Amino acid sequence: GAVVSQHPSWVICKSGTSVKIECRSLDFQATTMFWYRQFPKQSLMLMATSNEGSKATYEQGVEKDKFLINHASLTLSTLTVTSAHPEDSSFYICSAREAGTSNYGYTFGSGTRLTVV
Amino acid sequence: GNSVTQMEGPVTLSEEAFLTINCTYTATGYPSLFWYVQYPGEGLQLLLKATKADDKGSNKGFEATYRKETTSFHLEKGSVQVSDSAVYFCALSDGTGGFKTIFGAGTRLFVKA
Q: Fewer CB atoms near the end CB (10 Å): N or C, chain A?
């Protein structure tokens, strides 16, 4: 079945540095990828939708200059948390929608736990 | 807008007990409905889905029926196991808004041996 690889699975960084998280579709082409943030014991909050070759669409309240999303190919999207601060510590999860499909459930990555110290 | 409401947890059951996790939705169109499961420290896995009214999704002993008249998609399992302990998310997705998936708040299930 479809597999989405997310890397790294966890990262600890110093306040003020930037962190890049990768999301790759391994055996399918993903026209659309979604980035979510999950706080402890809470649901997933959609941060942005990225379409290959175009600018990401950010949800209300998400700072686009802080959370940079690039979707340069049909198999790779990246989320860069710029100038990270402790309040950015969270679990980030991506999901991918396969090209040519509609709404039949997307494949999720295994998530990245970011801790900013 | 679209939304999903599911029962609050945590739900604690003994092994082999019957499980029901309620889920209701609000949608303007005809969404597809999903249940996802999240094990500790992991991402989400699609558990089951239903794409139209009266469809029943099933997987690993879990099942849920798409009820349009009651706008519900309750998750059930006849006999839970300790390994079913996880967080369960009800979700919907439709063709509007760029195929976004809207998640419920999640229900944590603990199964005791």
A: N
Tokens of B73: 């998609």
Return left, alpha or beta for A61; rule: phi > 0 is left, psi -120 to 50 is alpha, else beta: left
Chain B residues closer than 8 Å to A46 by CB: 100-101
d(CA A27, CA A66): 30
Distance to chain A for B53, nearest Cα, Å: 14
- Chain A: nearest CA to B103, how far in angstroms? 7
Whether B84 and B75 have beta carbons less than 8 Å apart is answered as: no
**How is residue A89 written in tokens?**
């510590």
Average pLDDT by stretches of 10, chain A with 117 residues: 89 97 92 90 89 89 95 92 96 87 75 95
